[in-house]
User: Fold this.
Amino acid sequence: TVDASSAIEAAIDLCPEGQVVYIPSGTYRLDNRVYRAYADNITIRGAGIGNTILKAGSNISQMLLLGTADWPRPTSGIAITGGANSGSTVLTVSNSSSIIVGNLVRVEQNDLPYVIHVSEPTTNNKLLSATFRVTAKTSTTVTVTPALPFTFTESPTLVQYAISPLVSTGVEDLTIDCNSQSGVGVEFDQTWGCWIKNVEIKNSTNRQMFLYCFVSGEIRHNYTHSVIGGGPNHEGIDLYEDCSFNLIEDNITYNGGFPGIILGDSRGGCAGNV
Assistant:
């Protein structure tokens, strides 16, 4: 009967790394989104689908928002002079001083000759890219994980994300009822190794899941349904852009978005997903 968002946020703030924020059976009203930008290495867990229910009590943009991101998407990069080959993990650059170990980077290239923007044929949108995490560097090399999934041939560049990713945090075993009021059920922004598992999302007025720069994560055993409305901005499990090397497995979508699952809703960068 009262807004539970601040209580859930307080529990997240107090949770030690590697531990669980447990939300017992019951219906919890959210009049405000639960937003935590830097809640690394925790699990937010309910008592199971249909048992723990987070229910929108007002018109809010997201029910759960985890992580924070470089926005707009960073575009300036440094030239890669070697190592941009399929299977490589070491990239050669002239100067790696701007690269931060532990942060995300995007390897991109100029559009291939057969990629044509319909209204502006000369525009270079650099649509073919993939996002990685930096594990080490020297003055002229950058080591990333995982390995490059294909060879970049058209002037490859390395683009740095300045904000550290949210790491190893997940949401599982609960129902999110957007109650025909909230837009997004769960949003993750700029993350590494995060997950959504065994979560039901229903009655969203926008997307069911909105994933921006969601890298090396898992979307598993979820049920999305009963989206309110259709058309643009009503996608279901939406890997929006720069979402690479994710496993999307064993999900059910029934009227759960238009389309139910989409990789690359915006400017591409969704490579190496299964």
In short: The mean pLDDT is 95. The CA atoms of residues 211 and 239 lie 5 Å apart.
